[in-house]
Automatic annotation (TrEMBL):
<dbReference type="Pfam" id="PF00072">
    <property type="entry name" value="Response_reg"/>
</dbReference>
<feature type="domain" description="Response regulatory">
    <location>
        <begin position="8"/>
        <end position="123"/>
    </location>
</feature>
<dbReference type="Pfam" id="PF00990">
    <property type="entry name" value="GGDEF"/>
</dbReference>
<dbReference type="InterPro" id="IPR050469">
    <property type="entry name" value="Diguanylate_Cyclase"/>
</dbReference>
<dbReference type="InterPro" id="IPR001789">
    <property type="entry name" value="Sig_transdc_resp-reg_receiver"/>
</dbReference>
<dbReference type="GO" id="GO:0052621">
    <property type="term" value="F:diguanylate cyclase activity"/>
</dbReference>
<dbReference type="InterPro" id="IPR043128">
    <property type="entry name" value="Rev_trsase/Diguanyl_cyclase"/>
</dbReference>
<keyword id="KW-0597">Phosphoprotein</keyword>
<feature type="domain" description="GGDEF">
    <location>
        <begin position="166"/>
        <end position="300"/>
    </location>
</feature>
<keyword id="KW-0808">Transferase</keyword>
<protein>
    <recommendedName>
        <fullName>diguanylate cyclase</fullName>
        <ecNumber>2.7.7.65</ecNumber>
    </recommendedName>
</protein>
<keyword id="KW-0548">Nucleotidyltransferase</keyword>
<dbReference type="InterPro" id="IPR029787">
    <property type="entry name" value="Nucleotide_cyclase"/>
</dbReference>
<dbReference type="InterPro" id="IPR000160">
    <property type="entry name" value="GGDEF_dom"/>
</dbReference>
<dbReference type="InterPro" id="IPR011006">
    <property type="entry name" value="CheY-like_superfamily"/>
</dbReference>
<feature type="modified residue" description="4-aspartylphosphate">
    <location>
        <position position="56"/>
    </location>
</feature>
Length: 300
């Protein structure tokens, strides 16, 4: 398998021999990371986002239970699968570890074949979970976040803006004369054009929290947390330019000989008693205005 596709396993054990034996065992099939104590485990988990952690329970600085608790408390590491590997071999130790949220519990001395089989099993589960998450959150055509994901993120960002008091901007983008585009060039070409616009929108996002999603049909929505009207409008204007700059021929458009988009945006400055739906309505009203004013423009 290509090394960049190899799944990552973090082996956390205070005993150097254990680390080495487990590392050697896993090395041929996985990218192996090592940690010799609890603090290092947390640091490497956050930095390298391993797919699975083989976690020793008894470590001097911080035991495995505490490490697991802290992993779960940090959103960045909360979903990493953990297998406890421990000399504590009473049934209640095992039951306790599983109750804490470990995917599995392996007792020492371990059997190499069994360790490999269990690691493979849990990495398979991780792969399947990723696939499900993708199916649930990503639009198949454009590969942008889908409407379901947007609704979820929008709700969270709205709350975050309310707490922080920082503005939240939202824009709706709609392709101009897209019906004519399909009529003239065919639906498959329309799909390709939509994908190009989506890719351009995705690339225009500047911060990790910025989100471009497919709102429906040939409409995209852009969510820009901690961004006021001035900055949001500038970003969106660049995006409008960038789409026209793709120079996708559109001979049937009355707007321009190339594919263009209209964008309507609105910004919320927390403090007013507005509701999330009102910001979308305001952006939609601006989009209507951009269309009325001749298309291929931004209205805010
Ligand atoms: P305008 O927005 O400038 O007012 O005109 P329009 O022709 O783009 O009108 P509208 O936005 O109402 O039309 C949307 C068109 O987009 C109709 C539909 O066939 C097309 N469309 C929506 N989703 C897709 C898609 O996934 N693929 C393709 N090829 N076409 C799509
Ligand atoms: Mg130990
Ligand atoms: Mg539309
Ligand atoms: Mg349109």
């Amino acid at each position: 398998m290509n090394p960049v596709e190899m799944q990552k396993v973090l082996v956390a054990d205070d005993d150097a021999i254990n680390r080495e034996v487990l590392g050697e065992l896993l090395m041929p099939e996985y990218t192996v990371l090592l940690a010799k104590n609890g603090a290092q485990t947390l640091e490497r988990a956050a930095r390298h986002a391993p797919d699975l952690i083989l976690l020793d329970v008894m470590m001097p600085d911080m035991d495995g239970y505490e490490v697991l608790r802290r992993l779960r408390a940090d959103p960045q590491t909360a979903h990493i699968a953990v297998i406890f590997i421990s000399g504590l071999d009473r049934p209640e130790d095992e039951a306790n570890g599983l109750k804490m949220g470990a995917a599995d519990y392996i007792t020492k001395p371990f059997n190499a074949t069994v360790v490999m089989a269990r690691v493979a099993l849990h990495l398979q589960v991780v792969r399947q979970r990723r696939m499900l998450e993708r199916l649930a959150n990503v639009d198949g055509l454009t590969e942008l976040a889908n409407r379901r994901r947007f609704d979820e993120v929008y709700g969270m960002e709205w709350q975050r803006a309310r707490r922080s008091g920082r503005p939240l901007s939202l824009a709706l983008l709609d392709i101009d004369a897209f019906k004519q585009y399909n009529d003239r060039y065919g639906h498959p070409a329309g799909d390709r054009a939509l994908r190009s616009v989506a890719r351009t929108a995705g690339a225009a996002m500047r911060r990790p929290a910025d989100l471009a999603a497919r709102y429906g049909g040939e409409e995209l929505v852009l969510l820009l947390p901690e961004t006021g009207a001035l900055d949001a409008r500038e970003l969106v204007s660049h995006l409008r330019d960038a789409v026209a700059g793709l120079a996708i021929a559109h001979e049937s458009s009355s707007v321009a000989p190339v594919l263009t988009v209209s964008v309507g945006g609105a910004s919320w400055y927390p403090g007013s008693a507005e509701q999330p739906a009102e910001l979308v309505e305001a952006a939609d009203a601006e989009l209507y205005r951009a269309k009325q004013a001749g298309r291929n423009r931004v209205s805010w």
